[in-house]
Amino acid sequence: xxxxxxxxxxxxxxxxxxxxxxxxxxxxxxxxxxRAAAWLLVGIVLLALPLLLPPFRTYLATxxxxxxIAVVGLNVVMGFSGQISISHAAFMGVGAYTxxxxxxxxxxxxxxxxxxxxLLATLLGYVVGLPALRIAGHYLALATLxxxxxxxxxxxxxxxxxNGPRGIAVPPAVVGVFPLxxxxxxxxxxxxxxxSLLFVRNVVRSRVGRAWRAIRDKEIAASVFGVDVAxxxxxxxxxxxxxxxxxxxxxxxxxxxxxxxAFNLWESVKQLTMVLFGGLGTLVGPPLGATLLVLAxxxxxxxxxxxxxxxxxxxxxxxxxxRGGLASGVSRTAAWVRRRRSGAPPPDAAVTAGAxxxxxxxxxxxxxxxxxxxxxxxxxxxxxxxVTVRFGGLIAxxxxxxxxxDGEIKGLIGPxxxxxxxxxxxxxxxxxxxxxxxxFAGRDMLRLRPHQVVGAGxxxxxxxxxxxxxxxxLENVLVGRHHRDVCGLWRTGLRLPxxxxxxxxxxDAARAALATLGLERYADTPAESLPLGVQRRLEIGLGVVAExxxxxxxxxxxxxxxxxxAALMDDVRRIRAAGVTxxxxxxxxxxxxxxxxxxxxxxxxxxxxxxxxxxxQSDPAVVAAYLGEVES
Amino acid sequence: MTVIQLLVNSLTLGAIYALVxxxxxxxxxxxxxxxxxxxxxxxxxxxxxxxxxxxGLPLYxxxxxxxxxxxxxxxxxxxxxxxxxxxASPWTFVVASLAVxxxxxxxxxxxxxxxxxxxxxxxxxxxxxxLGVRITPQNLWVLGATVVVVTALLLFFRYTTYxxxxxxxxxxxxxxxxxxINLSRALMVTWALAGAVSAVAAVLIAPSTDVSPEIGxxxxxxxxAAALGGLDSLEGAxxxxxxxxxxxxxxxxxxxxxxxxxxxxxxxxxxxxVRPAGLLGRRVVRRx
Amino acid sequence: xxxxxxxxRVTLGYGKIVVVHELSLRLDAGRIVSVLGPxxxxxxxxxxxxxxxxxxxxxxxxxxxxxxxxxPPHRIVAERLAYVPQGRELFADMSVxxxxxxxxxxxxxxxxxxxxxxxxxxxxxxxxRAGQTAGSLSGGEQQMLAIARALMPRxxxxxxxxxxxxxxxxxxxxxxxxxxxVARSEGAAVLIAEQNAHQALRVTDHAYVLNTGVxxxxxxxxxxxxxxxxxxxxxxxxxxxxxx
Lengths: 632, 288, 244
Fold this sequence. Notes:
The structure holds three protein chains of three kinds. By secondary structure, chain A is α/β, with parallel strands linked by helices.
């Protein structure tokens, strides 16, 4: 928590994060100076605590910190990556029992035993995360429940190792000449907790954290923009389990005796309560929740006597009345106080008003604009041949041929249900193909997995704007950069120079992309509160920042006013002028006909026309498809 | 013991698991939700029955009133909790149903501590021998009652308008609303029914398990039964229950007692991984 | 005369975004009225609001002079307004017959078989497929089933959202003809929200053109077709003064 106090004297984190992103992100943040002061205070208190408290209280504070480590991990999987896990106590049990058994029976030193515990928990975390690739929601919950019960029963029944229901004693740990107890132990766990929190904070604000949140908000869109969903989901489970394992190891030497009941299903629910009570998906929330709920039984009588009962009541009250947890309550209050003081209207109001009126006047065009004329149209870049797709008994696409030439703007039109979006989904590997081939820039696209498509140079937008709604406009655009960057968990978590440089470059590029589309002023606004017209442009920004060779737009003009649509036409021309080929689905005829060098017309899953827009307008088959006077 | 005797023994246990699974499937079938507290609903039903019994009511009246009490419990929980989180994210319900289950158990502990209370059987527990297999009349009663409950639920869902309507709610909430089904009432009926079925399960189970907080955990096996059969299949719940019980019995006899839970829960993990729709379930699992 | 269905300055939206702004329209008994406009114009939002699936932000909806805004969907059905949503929202794992039976959820049970027979006369394909699950039907058949399901309780107002979506032209035409046919023989008023203006105008008495949540024009089909500016919009063309 006090990572800033601990480390900020020599390398103030704020200075190294390029751009002012953290400042405006949530309106509920306190002013920077106030925050620094608050962290400083927390830091001093944490450091001074064991000097002020009697040993028993120090022990309690240590237990609090152990749970802080655990819930920070749980928050990774549930809060940031949006998966569900009701087996966190089991992972903690794996870490704790591994540590205890290795120290007790094999007389391994604590650091080695703890490391083994963390590794085993991490490994199991990956294994439990595997079903998340296929299932979600309650099925995933059932799978993690099964794991919880298995661990519970192994601990209970493998008596020769775990001592079963009688519990197991943990020998006192000594590192060098320092016995790990009381104050020493407190400081060890404090350092571990702070580093854990700092690591997660770094990861969450990086490319990796954005990938997790993108999956949470919109899994399919995340994968289309290059996030390897399978890898990041299992990674989240792995990280989460590693934290639980670490917490378990610390728990073992803190408590000195392991009771199997400390790791049962209800303990998992307790940890869930801590996370939800504090604030799911926030950095300070879960530690806060853990602190309050671990301490509560010590100071409140009803809590002590009916600890579980009160826990469940608190949990239900949070779910019903305080869905964002304490953290959101605090930030909402802070925002309210600030508004009162400055007399400004609530931030949402401005945007809402914009939805109806302000959006109609288009944002000022950027200063320098490339010529709007198209470059020379070259060789075929994307070739789909004989593509057939069936859903159950229905044929969605039948032998569709499509050719997009390098540098052109190609229109893909046809009545609703003709299969246009299906074709997009085929090209981006969201849907399987039953027959046919797709080659793009000489590569066989059908060999790629969905997240590899954007790396191959092909980006797309969605018909019903698929934004990552809880992320800011800037973060959204940054997801478009995901596939270009490489820094993973370790480099971002440790904030190595390579990761910082990469992040800086990515943010510069993302800001430039926002500027090109005239969206700078929305950079720190969450996508969900942007007007539709802005969301559309933002999604195109995501596509552009991915630096594709071919950009596919699915009905970009739908829901736009005449002015916005005209502005969008200019945008599309500029994108092409920058060397990007464009494939466009659109119902707005003037939009398509005005932009396209050639059009392909789909009807009922088949291509009925391919050629120039002028000829399309007079082609009898095309006219018939639109007018419905079919003769065939 | 012969294999046949083992199978017959596991049949009663299977019926017990099936009864829990039924409560689970019933809810999933009519609301597309999984009640992670289902085991504790049965536990609560058992304590309701116990309370009625200790109030001096005759057993037959307890058998009638307990399901009504269970239904009332379902209504209260729906009103107080589930209704208020209907629009929240899917994991919210998972967590809330766990919390409700835990709360029910802790309330029972608050009132009755962790004591074991015997519960009178309806029929004799002296085994009789039929064709070389020993079985007790009480177990036959449990089996028979389970069959009756399953059949009643099957008929309700398959042939009555309201049963079809409940299934319609699970299949397509918007569709259900636009044909004029009162969504709010349908969910109310679902939870009342779930409470009633849980209480029926409780009075059938209680004589062989006693009434104690531990039956909640025992009944987690009902989840495995339901998942194995497919969460939306009543028949599947029964077969899943019997299968889990048979696996359990045979593991006990031929492997060892300690391995039972690992094998059974391992099976749940594998089923969720390989075939989340269950072995008999029809519904396609949405990929997010 | 009071309109059968009347929208009075209705405002609707999702989250922080206003989609339909103070929209007013009316539908009289025995008429077929369409709401036209490009994707995203707010057509679906409007009909969802009328059906009670989306709370109104302002204004009110009246059915036969009675205020129904704020009613939950099932009470609006009870007021004899039927709704065929764009996604059809059928019970995919149930048979055609069960879908129709549920369509008659608000009817007396003994009236259901006869009514189903009546509708089978209009939709002979459905009779052939009565035992199949709804999910196994073709797009056109599913659309017919959705319409038939909505017609079960003899609504006075039938509201269709984008009935042409995903249909082959021939099927599309057939669907519109059946809707007109049924409406005429049963005396129901019909409100069609549709992007395919040509199809919709063929059968409607009166049309509203909706764009970005606001009615831009309204009138009988012939009048609208005579207006060049409007005609451009019918083709889904919202860019009137675009730099072409």
